[in-house]
Design brief:
six-stranded mixed β-sheet; single chain; Rossmann fold; alpha/beta; three-stranded antiparallel β-sheet; globular
Length: about 200
């Protein structure tokens, strides 16, 4: 498996590790952001990092790999390709995760849930809860980056992150970057689309 420094080097090489003033999907603010899409646009690098996730979870014998849209789609596909099983994804509607486009899981399925990056684990927990409603068994949760510094836990679930790193995150009311009136960006939106700091 790749070392932590090798994984970090891949992110830096692809300019996936960014600095600025970001509003994360959790609502928290941070001066750093992993824009994993910058790495996932390169198939050879994507194949290399996803191979490690696939090998780590191979013994769990998943029948399907699921990733939350949009960040988990490419990761799920590539990990599933390495494992020789299906790849599907969930979509968020009104803050809740749903299976759409005819995707299904059943009580016969052994699900490996993967993401590009985890900050609070909220998305992964919502996806896991959704799939368990259909009777599927979650055999593991994997991510390229755990940006909580190892604070995120998934009790009774096998968990693996290729890179664990801690960046400070702040509640909007307590954000020093807001205090400096640095414009806020929401990753995934056009670069020019800025938010006003209140």
């Amino acid at each position: 498996m790749m070392t932590r420094d090798e994984v970090l080097k891949c992110f830096r090489k692809c300019h996936a590790l960014q600095r600025g003033h970001f509003e994360l999907s959790s609502g928290l603010h941070s001066g750093h952001y992993f824009q994993c899409a910058q790495l996932l646009q390169y198939p050879r690098i994507t194949s290399r990092v996803c191979k490690d996730l696939a090998e780590y979870f191979a013994s769990t014998k998943p029948t399907v790999v699921v990733g939350p849209a949009t960040g988990g789609i490419v990761v799920a596909y590539e990990v599933a390709r390495k494992l020789g099983c299906r790849a599907i994804y969930t979509e968020r509607i009104d803050s809740e995760m749903h299976l759409r486009r005819g995707f299904k899981v059943t009580k016969e399925d052994r699900v490996l849930l993967v993401e590009d990056a985890i900050s609070t684990g909220e998305s992964a927990r919502k996806v896991a809860a959704l799939l368990e409603c259909f009777g599927a068994k979650i055999v593991g949760i994997g991510t390229l980056v755990d940006r909580s510094g190892g604070k995120v836990k998934f009790p009774k679930k096998k968990f693996k992150s290729l890179l664990t790193i801690a960046f400070e995150a702040f509640a909007p009311d307590d954000c020093p970057l807001c205090g400096e009136e640095i414009p806020t960006t929401r990753p995934g939106r056009p670069k020019h689309e800025l938010l006003d700091c209140d």
